[in-house]
């Protein structure tokens, strides 16, 4: 990944930071973008690299997506790899009682935010001689149903369809597009979901999730980042339009 110009949305989150650390360690230039300045500053302090840039943006607003893409071009000269990673979990609630404002926000972040990213990064990558690689963060929730998180499951199915169409449109320009589909990952998002599924008994919920995974553990942030790193690099140059679980055998 040496000298690759990389953008990561949701870059101050657990997976985003693990990915940025790995990329910087391989000599990439990295722009991370996220919603809160304080989270970006914390990530910048932790990663401590002159090759790291930050930009605050709300991925639900197309004008702000256009701004982070332009900032990446201004600072790095272009974009070679785009990790379309920002996402939220929403709430745990039956479908007929799910708060509509939460549903709308989840769709705005997890679907529209991903689309806006594709819409504005594609023209930049088309200018590259060697195209580029785009990795969208989906989930095992994009491959199966789970009760009481219908909006989240819907959004993660949606971005798989988005990826497949984008991969076909990108191929003539050497732009590759793939999804990464993690199982439960041991980070803040799963703490939120565990508490949602079993209020006051999150630890028990975690045990139940772990038992559904053949390897009997959650993924680490680094497990996911390693697959993302591969899909962003030249070793995956003939891989596009694919769904890539990193799930300990969960979808088997």
Automatic annotation (TrEMBL):
One of its GO terms (molecular function) is oxidoreductase activity. Transmembrane segments: none annotated. The keyword tRNA processing does not apply. Keywords: Oxidoreductase. NCBIfam families: PRK07231.1 (NF005559). Gene3D superfamilies: NAD(P)-binding Rossmann-like Domain (3.40.50.720). The keyword Oxidoreductase applies. CDD domains: SDR_c. InterPro entries: NAD(P)-bd_dom_sf, Sc_DH/Rdtase_CS, SDR_fam. Belongs to the short-chain dehydrogenases/reductases (SDR) family. This is Short-chain dehydrogenase/reductase SDR.
């Amino acid at each position: 990944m040496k000298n690759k110009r990389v953008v990561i949305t949701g870059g101050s989150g657990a997976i985003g930071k693990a990915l940025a650390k790995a990329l910087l360690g391989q000599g990439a230039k990295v722009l991370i973008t996220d919603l809160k300045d304080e989270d970006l500053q914390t990530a910048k302090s932790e990663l401590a690299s002159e090759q790291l840039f930050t930009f605050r943006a709300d991925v639900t607003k197309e004008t702000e997506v256009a701004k982070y893409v332009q900032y990446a071009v201004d600072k790095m000269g272009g974009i070679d790899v785009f990790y379309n990673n920002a996402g939220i979990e929403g709430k745990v609630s039956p479908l007929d009682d799910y708060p509509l404002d939460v549903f709308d926000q989840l769709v705005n972040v997890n679907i529209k935010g991903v689309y806006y990213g594709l819409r504005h990064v594609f023209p930049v990558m088309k200018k590259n001689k060697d195209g580029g690689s785009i990795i969208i963060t989906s989930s095992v929730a994009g491959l199966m149903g789970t009760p009481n998180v219908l909006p989240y499951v819907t959004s993660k199915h949606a971005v798989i369809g988005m990826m497949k169409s984008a991969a076909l449109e990108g191929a003539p320009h050497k732009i590759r597009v793939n999804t990464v589909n993690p199982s439960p990952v041991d980070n803040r998002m799963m703490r939120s979901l565990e508490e949602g599924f079993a209020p006051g008994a999150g630890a028990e919920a975690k045990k139940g999730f772990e038992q559904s995974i053949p390897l009997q553990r959650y993924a680490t942030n680094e497990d996911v980042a390693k697959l993302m790193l591969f899909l962003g690099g030249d070793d995956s140059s003939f891989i596009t339009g694919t769904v890539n679980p990193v799930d300990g055998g969960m979808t088997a």
